[in-house]
Structures are given as structure tokens and as C-alpha cells.
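Same chain as my last thread, 219 residues:
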Amino acid sequence: MIELKVTEDGSTTLFVKELNEHYHSIHGAIQESMHVFIEAGLKQIDKKDIRIFEMGLGTGLNCLLSMIQTTNQSVFYHAVEENPLPYSISEKLNYCESLNLEPDIIQQFYELHHSDWDTDVTLRTGYILKKERVDILQFTTKQKFDLIYFDAFSPEVQPSLWSSDVFQNMYNILDNNGILVTYCAKGSVRRTMKSCGFLVERIPGPPGKREMLRAIKEQ
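reply #2:
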């Protein structure tokens, strides 16, 4: 069962009772996503054409924030989600209201959730989304990415998503000098990333979390 919750910055997240897990930090959903994925990830990529891969589309918040931040760039955004949210839940998320977005961007967020799967969809000029409903353990692609948002449920809840097999695949699909960012800072995750070839650094985390991880695929 999934419950809608309001976090400390006023933005909504979801709570999965069966897993006892929130989709975002209770200290602030938008605040966390901005810190981990936008500031520590997207803003570190100095390119006009950016290819982003997201492990865990979830509420679509990272995709929305990326779209807002890249109005002068072209983006190909490929997201994998094995368990998509039903529309009855995604339509209750308050990100557009919290961010005071214009009607056209609100429509793009709506289309983000309602668009077809397994096909390229243009959300706005220069911003293409491809959603794929697949287990990350079965995911393959010939595409190379500049940036990976690794936003899976925690290692305690879904340890298979944080395995060496998954991170080796993430390393392989990153372009040289590509970046992977995640909210997680566990030592075991850092060591797994390093064993797959990543250069891994601990950096300050969002409010309520001391650290997060950023990993780079060096040339």
C-alpha cells in the first residue's frame, strides 16, 4: 500500500508500507532531489547535449527538476522503472504547486507520467524522455550516458539493486568522465562501486543526511 506524505519542505513523497520506506527524504523531497541529483550531478555536466539515465523513475521528480534546469540544453532522459505509479497517485503529487510552475511545465509533468512506455517522447523542444518498464538486472542498452541518477530504494530494503552486477552495468553505460550520483553513503556501496572501476567520493548530503556518494568513470 502506498500513502501520500508531506515532507518538511512542503513537497510530497510516498510511503510504501510493505517496505517501510519513503520515496524521498522526510526532511524535504524537492530539497533532497535538488541537492543530490541536480546540484551534485546535473550542474557538474558542462555540455549542450546531455544524456541522463535514471534508475527508478518513481514520482518523476528528478525528471521534472532536470527539465526545469536545462531550458538551454538538449536532453535525452532514459528512465527505468519496474513498478510505475498508478495515475491516481501521481496526480496527487504537489511538485508543480510547490515550485510554482507555469501551465506549460505542469502539462509536461502530466505527460511525463501519462506518456507511452518503451518509446521516445518529446516533453518539450529538446527534451526527450524514454521510460522503460524493466528490472534493472535485465536492462541492456548500447546508449552511453553522461549522468546517472541512482535513486533506488535503500540497500536495506532492496539489496539486489545495489549489487556489483548492477554497478558494473552502470559503469559500462556511462561515457568517459560520466558521473553517477546517489543519496546513499554506505561504506559497502562505496566499496562495491570502487570494485567496478568508479572513482568514488563522499560529499556533503542533503539536510538530514551527513553524506552522499558521487562516482566518476575516469578515462
